[in-house]
Write a structure and sequence with these properties.
The protein is of the alpha/beta class and 340 residues long. The protein is 46% helix and 19% strand. The protein binds manganese (II) ion.
Amino acid sequence: MDVGRLMEEGRRFLSKLPRSGRLLIVADDDADGVLSAHLFARYVHKRNPYLSTLITITQRERMTDILAEHPDYTPVLLDLSPTPQLAGYLDETGRKAFAVDHHPWNEHPHTLTGYNPHLLGVPNASKYNTGFLVYLLFRNEINKSGDLWKVAVTSFGDSCYDYLKPYYYGLDERTVELAAHMVGSVSPEKLPVLFSVLEETKDIGEFVGNEELLRMKREFERGLHDILSNLDKYLVEGGKNYQIIVLPPERARFKSAVATVASKRNPDVLFAVGILEDGIYNFSLRYQQARERKVHLGVFASNLGRRWGTNGGGHAPAAGLRVPEDRLDEFIAEVRKLLS
Ligand SMILES: [Mn+2]
């Protein structure tokens, strides 16, 4: 069974981690990344008390800079697939790194030890989200400490929740959803608040009752609603089955939520929602009908990222892609071609 194979591979992965020294946990800035970072740091430390951990939440294209800024740490990437830049950096420096991830990998530098179901050829590998993989690594300790609800929350937005439900038997689904939205609403500068709440709460009931996090969630929802009800204002180009939307930089934190919600409301439309920063459009791509239409946004994004020397990648229905400002028309033409 696939989960059995993943557990076995997880044991091998853990045995390769250093027993002492400093770990730099670099995690994606979404609910799966943030909660995985919290769980990984907490349980790797319980297991190896001589390891110290530092958590950084970031975007994929910033990874290499962050590693270079912390030369004395062993990096552990969570929910982030290696970029060509990172592969070049690791190959050049020979620096050892680790990664727990469920995105398809196009790069695999030889000094990177990965724990990723895609590397094992497991079917539907993307659905074993990073939170679930971290759970497999530390499951005895997580079960004992009553932290299983955090694993459930990581998986909520990652389309594997239904599949993983038996593992979370007994949790109320609406409460898990609320907790996932609370995590997803925290702005980057407020992440320390979230991490301290996660350290201190003993169960999901206490977590969803946290007033400060609930206030952040309401604020986020107001902003999201405001954008979604004025989406035409941000439309750059649209056809019958695609919409290219560019939000102003001050709305950057709403980008992926706008893409996800808009595409769930219009499953037969491909949404590209981007922000222009430093001459590059950073797009979130979503297409609910990707699988039925035999479209893989992750492959699409990774090919274009390679062509333009930027970054792209992800899953079939959800991916990220950086498009140089002067390639916007070419990008739109590629979207049309993909859907035709
Ligand atoms: Mn994920």
